[in-house]
Amino acid sequence: MAAGAGLLERLGRLGRFVWSAWAGVAALALLAAVWQAGHEAYGDFILPAPLATLRAAAALLTDPVAWQLLWLTTQRALMGFFLAAAAGTLVGIVAGYSPACLRLARPLLTITLGVPPIAWIVLAMIWFGATDATVAVTILIAATPLVFMGAAEGIATRDRTLDAMAQVFGAGAIRRFTHVVARQLAAHLFPALILALGSAFKVAIMAELLANAGGIGSALARSRSLLDIAQALAWVTLAVAALIVVEYGLIRPVRSELERWREALQPWGVKR
Amino acid sequence: MSAHPSAKRLELRRLGHAFFGRTVLEDIWLTVESGEIVALVGPSGCGKSTLAQIAAGLVEPREGEVIRRYANHAMVFQEPRLLPWVTARDNIGFSLRLAGIPRRQRASRIAEAAALAQFEPDDLGKYPSELSGGMRQRVAIARALAPRPDFIYFDEPFTALDVALKRRMQDLVIAAAQQTQFAALFITHDLMEAVRIAHRIVVLDHAGHGVAGERAIAGAPGTRDDATAFQTVQAMLRHDPAFAHIHDVDERRRA
């Protein structure tokens, strides 16, 4: 009986999640309306109509080569993202527990974030040539500071009274981390991970474009040289779609599973 | 349950502590016997909480030693300190998890502890944010009772509750103590609370320099009527030199 109720509750939450997509559709429709207005004001060459762009994107998707390019970029972005997530989380946790490390890391972070990603791409191209490593290293450098800050904040702002409570009941340092701190860490880490994923896609495409390393970036460069605006916009649309698929398919479900207790705080009816 | 009635469960010997060079505790000697509830009273800022934290092993003392002769301890804090992301049931089960009680046995132990803390079984599925202050503190008490500890530290657990609720919680602790025979160190600044709950009251010096006095209270907790308890408190405050400074509080001088 309890398992049935749990399943029903889970289905209910999934239903609410799907239903909330209407808000997203409404926002996209607004964007399309503004876009259409721009198209009508400036003409087909500067800004093709949203429907024409969608048609171009759909046409691209019938081509297996386009799928390969999309997959290549997604793969690179994900690889860089996972590297950045692992490195940032690990170092962030250490820094969160050690104030001295955090104080040392802050200025370094300012410097890393101050250097534009484009400069890193140039450096990585010199070091690694037009390879996957160039893209991965650039993402690593661009996205790690974001994850690091999220993780360090999560640890540093944890509720220490809960640590003391767990210690009284016999939890050592490791169980205090896994049982008490990890959940508080996740609340800070997930927004940072979503940001990092977005910047991973952006940097991947930028690096591909500059290094001519294949993928969506190279396709964009080709559209630019052919002055094919509809094609370029179609590629941008597909890149955004890939990001949305990864974000809503991978990160948001994990997050909503962890943040279930927050729903109890909200009044009935009004759910995110 | 206890081997013999005079066994010393907790012994503090010549305990001293300092924060950043400022001495907060000095030369404290204290014992708690098996099944005995000792109330530790003193004005705010005299170091009561620090003493409890040292005794429970949360803080390392600068001087002296702590001898613990109990099997396992638990603690009820001034704030409930519940995990906000799990239900009342799992908050109570948290202490069982840490104590290594197998998953199969936890449900019955949670129900047992919730009953001792008079927590409604229907509310076990709620998150802490859905519970009132009194109910949260009941969950905290149930969490402390669940592993069946033979020693419990209470660190001003009912200070934040209103008068009627406070009384009910005190009765609950008295009843639970009679049922499960735990020994306890009960920190409070409320003399009436101390007189109702404890077998013995220990008064900490207002600056933490040793123990100012120790008084056994006639009768067992739970058998004393309100009039006698009130008279005991009045007599202590008026005539007993040990309690002379108990309401001398100048919070501005305490950082």
Could you explain the architecture of this structure?
The complex is a heterodimer of chains A (272) and B (255). Chain A is mainly α and 272 residues long. Chain A has 12 helices and no strands. Chain A has helices at 2-19, 21-42, 50-61, 64-97, 99-114, 117-128, 132-156, 160-168, 173-211, 215-225, 229-258, 260-263. In chain A, α5 (99-114) packs across α7 and α6 crosses α7. The radius of gyration of chain A is 22 Å and the shape is globular. With 255 residues, chain B is an alpha/beta fold. Chain B has 7 helices and 9 strands. In chain B, α5 links the parallel β6 (151-155) and β7. The longest helix of chain B is centred in the C-terminal third of the chain and has 18 residues, at 163-180. Chain B is globular and about 50 Å long. The model of chain B has no long low-confidence stretch (mean pLDDT 90). The A-B interface holds A 161-162, 164-171, 175, 179-180, 183, 258, 260-261, 264-265 and B 53, 56-58, 72-75, 77, 79, 81, 83-86, 94-95, 97-99, 126-127, 129-130, 143, 147, 153.
